[in-house]
């Protein structure tokens, strides 16, 4: 089979190499899938650079979430069968940017019938992150105002749709007119282009100076610091990641004076501590997709040959919406 592999660390476009390799065999608790969709995520970029918390041994194939058709199951797998259409996380080093990928059975779920393969491939990480962040960690309520940074990105776009599904008023912050149009298409009530507008001032204006009840921040750094200037009384700032490259320091005296919370989210820990909650979340997301309340907006469908360039565009911040390998 063919697989994109990283032999040395660096920028994706420079270090990803298309190799011909043996098809892997599933371990006792794994399944092997024929990849029908593999969404590109920022963790894939960070793994290529050697900057992610998960560091698979070289060489490895990135692609942390997939949709696929099961072609083989391990000896201990009983609830997944050959021929099933599934989504979930991959078992590195055999990721999704290949013709076949390995998945741990515990992180493999039925693909939502309402979504095609490319859309389904983009549902697992971003929407699970958004659901746990908004509901379990931030306690978002109907009628509240949700501010989403990087709203045209993978986790941001999911947060917009999940916020709307929860009955919140959603403000999306993006960079550039193309991304602004995408955020509006996702359903954001207010869209702010950070290149031409000050999001702090706009949030204050549209909330009559109250501020946002929940801030969804996958960027960090100065974005976090400035979000503290437009957080509402008893608001919650949800720290999802640091895509901006700077890990901020929270001024806890400011949180005390303004009476807001800073809440962290590491969604992957739920797979270890509460796998039943992850399965229940998947059932909820499947139902929301069936109702038309959520649907990943796939802006680019890559061929196998185009994966390295597509992941590099994601690394450079030049993509809008979800970029998915869709053979």
UniProtKB/TrEMBL annotation:
Q: Which SUPFAM superfamilies match?
A: GroES-like, NAD(P)-binding Rossmann-fold domains
Keyword Heme (UniProt): no
Q: What class of enzyme is it?
A: oxidoreductase
What EC number(s) does this enzyme carry?
A: 1.-.-.-
- Looking at the record, the residues that make up the Enoyl reductase (ER) domain are 13-325
Which keywords has UniProt assigned to this entry? Oxidoreductase
Q: What terms describe the molecular function in GO for this protein?
A: oxidoreductase activity
| Protein name (record) | NADPH:quinone oxidoreductase family protein
Which organism's genome codes for this protein? Nocardia xishanensis
Organism lineage string: Bacteria, Bacillati, Actinomycetota, Actinomycetes, Mycobacteriales
């Amino acid at each position: 089979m063919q697989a994109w592999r990283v032999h040395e660390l660096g920028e994706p476009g420079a270090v990803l190499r298309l190799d011909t390799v043996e098809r892997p065999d599933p371990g006792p608790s794994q399944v092997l899938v024929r990849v029908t969709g593999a969404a590109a995520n920022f963790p894939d970029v960070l793994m290529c650079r050697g900057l992610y918390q998960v560091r698979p041994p070289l060489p490895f194939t990135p692609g942390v979430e997939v949709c696929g058709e099961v072609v083989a199951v391990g000896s201990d797998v009983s609830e997944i069968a050959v021929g099933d259409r599934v989504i979930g996380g991959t078992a590195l080093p055999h990721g999704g940017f290949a013709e076949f990928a390995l998945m741990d059975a515990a992180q493999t779920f039925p693909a939502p019938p309402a979504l095609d393969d490319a859309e389904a491939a983009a549902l697992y990480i971003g929407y699970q992150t958004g659901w746990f962040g908004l509901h379990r960690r931030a306690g978002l309520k109907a009628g509240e105002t949700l501010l989403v940074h990087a709203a045209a990105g993978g986790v941001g776009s999911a947060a917009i749709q999940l916020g709307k599904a929860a009955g919140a008023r959603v403000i999306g912050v993006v960079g550039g007119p193309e991304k602004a149009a995408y955020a509006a298409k996702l359903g954001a009530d207010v869209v702010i282009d950070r290149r031409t507008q000050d999001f702090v001032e706009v949030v204050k204006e549209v909330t009559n100076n109250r501020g946002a009840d929940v801030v969804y921040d996958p960027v960090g750094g100065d974005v976090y610091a400035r979000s503290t200037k437009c957080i509402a009384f008893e608001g919650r700032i949800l720290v999802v990641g640091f895509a901006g490259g700077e890990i901020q320091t929270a001024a806890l005296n400011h949180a005390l004076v303004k009476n807001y919370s800073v809440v962290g989210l590491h969604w992957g820990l739920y797979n270890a501590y509460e796998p039943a909650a992850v399965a229940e979340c998947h059932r909820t997301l499947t139902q929301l997709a069936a109702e038309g309340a959520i649907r990943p907006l796939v802006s680019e469908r890559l061929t196998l040959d185009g994966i390295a360039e597509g992941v590099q565009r994601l690394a450079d911040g030049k993509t809008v919406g979800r970029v998915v390998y869709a053979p």
